[in-house]
Amino acid sequence: MELTVLAVPDCPNVEAMLQCLEQVAPDDAARIDVLVITDQVQAARHGMHGSPTLLINGTDPFAAPNATASVSCRIYRDADGRAAGAPSIEQLREALQHAHQAEH
Question: Which of 12, 29, 86, 92 would give a disulfide with 25, using CB separation of 3.0 to 4.6 Å?
């Protein structure tokens, strides 16, 4: 499983995303790559929908249908609708389980 975090330079929410991922990433995800995106062309090429964006096997599991690429801050909503700079541990766990099931 390939895990990549796309982020703008000095994004304050990357560390929260990485800490949560480390708690729930499966053993076969040997590493989590971080790719710094500096312009709209890169954002479109890599599929960044705001910073930070998680790609699981190249796909953003949290992107709305037809979401456009964006070099901006990204807000995630938890199960209660509260805003956060990264998905919750439970949201990440669900996204990773779904991706794992799709692989097998």
Answer: 29
